[in-house]
Amino acid sequence: MTKPLTCDVVIVGAGMVGAASALYAARAGLDVILVDRGPVAGGTTGAGEGNLLVSDKEPGPELELALLSGRLWADIAAEPGLAEAVEYEAKGGLVVASAPEGLASLEAFAAGQLAAGVDAVPVAAGQLHDLEPHLAPGLAGGVLYPQDAQVMPTLAAAHLVRLARTAGASLRAGWTVTEVLRTAAGAVRGVRTSKGDIHTPAVVNAAGTWGGELAALAGTSLPVLPRRGFVLVTEPLPRMVRRKVYAADYVADVASDSAALQTSPVVEGTAAGPVLIGASRERVGFDRSFSLPVARALAAGATGLFPFLETVKAMRGYLGFRPYMPDHLPAIGPDARVPGLFHACGHEGAGIGLATGTGHLIAQALTDKKPDMDVAPFRPDRFPDPSPEEVP
């Protein structure tokens, strides 16, 4: 019989959040094993746009986490060669309103963010084309967010894993966790995988959209649901969209509880040349069907913001599943119901941006350090346990 591996902590899920958690835990001196049933960034991360945003978050715990994460992303990008390797661009974001009433709401939203530490700069209608020369005419105005940034998500996750391994972590790709091993008293003592057992006193659930399934393997619950989103990718272009540009109603769509389809135009250029076009949201389970109506809605919204896109070819479209939580906040930290179980999932569409802050807080929790911010709003056991008839 193969002797089980042993370590200080197993992190389940090699997406961006898991990669960041492995990095900060390893740099904190812990013996880390990162496991995933597939490759690095094989789930939600690989289907993301790489946004590192503060612009779409209202004052509160998620915005505080976004500000912490932004500082940590900047620190990582400052390490030798990393900014180029992960295509980190501190390019800023521009939110635009088509009508005066929408602009008034946007400016009120931005004023609250400004008081919470966000750099939010009102932009008059006549100044919009100084920032984005190819924007449609007739917009009422907008708000510029210099702190918004972007990375190439699969590259960034791979490099965070590389940094984690340099710090002593190990990666086990293609290892499916089938059971969370527990003591008679209920505490974590390891995981059982398709390739053998790993003994550990701590398990971090960074399984993203499948975080609820992993929680169930540990004998507890977490109400994570998939929220499907599509992205269109254009042919490579000269830099005609300088920032992430989106319509003000995108913020409302992010915060919505509706399961129905919602689309709002989001357009951004990339370092490689293609323009990324989103955004859609709908709760349809894990249905991977391509939706032509959604693609048409995204294209229509994008050309409404940037008319030049009408003559540009879309090379491809792809979809992913954002890990949705009922209160739109992730679960971060220890689970009081299962000693030794930690959660780092449920970030919906913000996981790439919030990954560094999440990983940092997880490392602090694992090493009994005082957290750099109040983590109570992210408490994993804040939701009531499901009734027997709600359990699949």
Q: How would you sum up this structure, described in words?
A:
This protein has ten helices and 20 strands. The chain is an alpha/beta fold and 392 residues long. It has an eight-stranded mixed sheet with strand order 6-7-5-15-16-17-14-18. Helix 1 (16-27) runs parallel beside helix 6, helix 1 (16-27) packs parallel to helix 10 and helix 2 (61-77) crosses helix 10. The longest helix has 17 residues, at 61-77. The chain is globular, with a radius of gyration of 21 Å. The two termini are 35 Å apart. The relative contact order is 0.20.
Summarize the structure.
With 392 residues, this protein is of the alpha/beta class. The chain has helices spanning 16-27, 61-77, 82-85, 100-115, 128-131, 153-166, 211-217, 249-255, 292-305, 351-366, and strands at 5-6, 9-12, 32-36, 51-52, 93-97, 121-124, 141-145, 149-150, 170-173, 177-182, 188-193, 196-199, 203-205, 225-234, 244-247, 262-269, 275-281, 314-324, 331-334, 341-345. It contains 10 helices and 20 strands.
Show the helix and strand layout.
Elements: E1 5-6, E2 9-12, H1 16-27, E3 32-36, E4 51-52, H2 61-77, H3 82-85, E5 93-97, H4 100-115, E6 121-124, H5 128-131, E7 141-145, E8 149-150, H6 153-166, E9 170-173, E10 177-182, E11 188-193, E12 196-199, E13 203-205, H7 211-217, E14 225-234, E15 244-247, H8 249-255, E16 262-269, E17 275-281, H9 292-305, E18 314-324, E19 331-334, E20 341-345, H10 351-366
Parallel strand pairs: 1-12, 2-3, 2-13, 3-9, 5-15, 13-20
Antiparallel strand pairs: 4-8, 5-7, 6-7, 10-11, 11-12, 14-17, 14-18, 15-16, 16-17, 19-20
Helix pairs in contact: 1-6, 1-10, 2-10
